[in-house]
Design a protein that fits this description.
Elements: H1 2-13, E1 18-19, E2 24-26, E3 32-33, E4 37-40, E5 53-58, E6 70-72, E7 77-78, H2 81-86, E8 91-94, E9 102-103
Parallel strand pairs: 1-3, 7-9
Antiparallel strand pairs: 2-5, 4-5, 6-7, 6-8
Length: 107
């Protein structure tokens, strides 16, 4: 029992695992990406559901003002996929999310 308590304390004290751009993220291990990055999933991965893995990608520095609404994996509507990625979100599907308004672009 004491060994189990020590193991739990060690796991809680260990720093979180951060992956670099291009590295695998998400998945059953829940690996997160570093600052300025997000875990980009393929469209087939349905926003990382079911312990799907993605790849760490750099958040865009800027986006065009093209209006092509998408529903982010967070359930918010963005003016285009680039703005969703800037917010660290993947695109769940094209078009508006049900019952939402468009999120203003990140400045």
């Amino acid at each position: 029992m004491r060994v189990l308590a020590v193991l739990i304390l060690f796991l809680l004290a260990a720093p979180a695992a951060f992956a670099e751009v291009g590295a695998t993220c998400g998945g059953i291990a829940g690996v997160t990406c570093g600052d300025g990055e997000f875990c980009k999933f393929t469209p087939e991965a349905t926003c990382g559901a079911g312990d799907q893995s993605g790849v760490c990608a750099k958040k865009p520095d800027f986006c065009t003002l093209q209006y092509d609404p998408v529903c982010g994996c967070d359930g918010k509507t963005y003016s285009n996929a680039c703005h969703a990625h800037t917010a660290g979100q993947n695109v769940a599907h094209k078009g508006f999310c049900p019952g939402t308004e468009i999120v203003p672009p990140v400045k």
